[in-house]
Amino acid sequence: MIDLSSQVRPDSGKPAAIRSRRKKLTFDKVSFMVVFLGLPLAVYVVFVISPFVQAAYYSMTDWSGFSASMNFIGVDNYVKLVHNDTFMKALGNNIILVIVLPIVTIILSLILATLVTVGGSSRGQIKGLKNSSFYRVVSFFPYVIPAIIIGIMWTQIYDPSNGLVNGILTGMGFDEFKSFPWLGDERTAMIATMFVIVWGFIGFYMVLFVAAIKGIPAELFEAARIDGAGRVRTLVSITIPLIRDNIQTAYVYMGILALDAFVYMQVMNSGGGPNNSTLVMSQQLFSTAFTKNQFGYSSAMGVVLAAVTLAFSGLVFLVNRLTGGKDDVR
Amino acid sequence: MMSLKEAVRSGSVTVRPRKAKETKGDKAVAAVSHTMLLIWSLIVILPLLWTLMTSFKTTREIFASPFSLPEQWNFDNYVSAWTTAGIGSYFVNTIIVVGFALVIVMVLGAMCAYVLARFKFPGSRGIYYLMLAGLTFPIFLAIVPLFFILKNIGLLNTLPGLIIVYVAFALPFTVFFLFSFFKTLPDEIGEAAAIDGAGEWRTFFQVMLPMAKPGLASVLIFNFLGLWNQFLIPVALNTNVGHYVLSQGMAAFASQAGYAVNFGALFAAVVITVVPVLIVYIIFQRQLQGSVSAGTNK
């Protein structure tokens, strides 16, 4: 490259001109940089970064939003939060979600992805089951349905008297489910809600894992087969280690979603469920801010939520690294 | 490209040299796998079919016989959902908000990603990490201050206010995705454009942007799904019923249907919301699934 330009320079002045023009600040270049970088950054700083910073400050005040006065009260809000049993319950529910949801979703979608990619015949070419693209298309369906609609739909499906679930169960002869309130019973509300979230996301992660598995050279599977590895062994020793980074990414995405979970919870049990069994932090935050107008206090909840989210992502990266993965933070 | 590779791998394009014999074990495994996948497919499809079927029933029918086919297939529920429940106006609002937000965020995001990826200047790394921060922090932390920022500039409860917040929060993802995309475009193209006398502006709009089309398409699909589904931002920042978008309108309708009990219309409204997305999905499903892999396997 350099050789070429030094060869060219003596007889035609063009590349030299380009070089100097690139360094000089012409109007073209200045206006370009100002508009291209300045405009997006301005929007971003005003509407994303500055609210985050302000929230951190509000969390240390007793601001009620509409009063002009705002007293700095230090960490009082946080102390209050620790003694707030409802919020602690919500935090606990979030932690249950963040542990259960990613694990269940990833295991199920990984199994489905394996079946449609390498689950086929153990002779001949490595391939998936027949008609696997049909399953892939169908599985991905729920991902494109808005979360709010998924929630509304399943609320009706879980309906004690007219819902699909109890209809099928009584049809199969389980009469004790005739009017069982899946979302209204403390024992099942959380599990039923988690099922809905998993239902919505399995297809997405399945497609993600299918793509990852297809990225693995077929020779590796063939070699494993020649060495006598069965299907389970191939999954554990070949597939999982090779798509480990995708699993990590999936885990983080799904975990962040579980720490939010606002839409699903709000639509299926807007009051937090029986005995607050499905209450999550984001719901607490929302009602504290927009019905009780305690903006300082709710900002403290936001900071806790953010801290838990960051701690979670950090933990996933750390565990992956300690157990031998690449420390590839994207 | 993706689809071709897929096709080759899955064996639908290559001519198999000989028919591989299936062992007994294979048949058993295949049977079990197909059963599992079929059950899963049923779990996905049944709720959707049931919703579709119920949307044609009157509320009385829903209560009397929730599992039988409707006595007559009429569209009354759809009419009442579209007009009296206001789904029509929510639909229009959503299209306006999502449409404008998408155009703006694609332009701003592409510009920002292009500058960050192709120019070296002090602070470029810092800006990149600032964007990363926006991706990791939960939007809930920002929602209260955002409420007052919009209030102070007079955009609270307005569609433009909603649009600009949508743009701001879709920006980090867009920049990230396109950043890696612009990085892969060879330098020689920019140099060639410069030799031909194109300024920075022209290089971007007439050379770089068209070349980034596949990347732009992927981001566009993701942003569309994300913004179309957005719930928290409108619920918190757009409380004027006349400006409701589809997601919050549906939530309001659902909670109100609990009392006023027009379940038939509720199911119809659900179908109205789902069908356009499903049609788009079925048409673009290859492209979409390609995007998922492109977006996560960078």
UniProtKB/TrEMBL annotation, chain B:
The entry's localization annotation reads: Cell membrane
The parts of the chain that form a coiled coil are none
Q: Which residues cross the membrane?
A: 28-50, 90-116, 128-150, 162-182, 216-237, 257-284
Write out the GO cellular component annotations.
Answer: plasma membrane
Main location as per UniProt: membrane
Asked if the record carries the keyword Protein biosynthesis, the reply is no
Q: Which membrane topology describes this protein? A: Multi-pass membrane protein
Extract the Pfam families matched here: BPD_transp_1 (PF00528)
Q: Which GO terms describe its biological process?
A: transmembrane transport
The protein's matches in InterPro entries, at most eight in alphabetical order, are given as: MetI-like, MetI-like_sf
Q: Residue limits of the ABC transmembrane type-1 domain?
A: 91-284
Gene3D superfamilies documented for this protein: MetI-like
| Protein keywords | Cell membrane, Membrane, Transmembrane, Transmembrane helix, Transport
- PANTHER family per the UniProt record, alphabetical: ABC TRANSPORTER PERMEASE PROTEIN MG189-RELATED (PTHR43744:SF12), ABC TRANSPORTER PERMEASE PROTEIN MG189-RELATED-RELATED (PTHR43744)
Q: What family is reported?
A: Belongs to the binding-protein-dependent transport system permease family.
Q: What is this protein called?
A: Carbohydrate ABC transporter permease
Q: What organism does the record attribute this protein to?
A: Arthrobacter terrae
Lineage of the source organism? Bacteria, Bacillati, Actinomycetota, Actinomycetes, Micrococcales
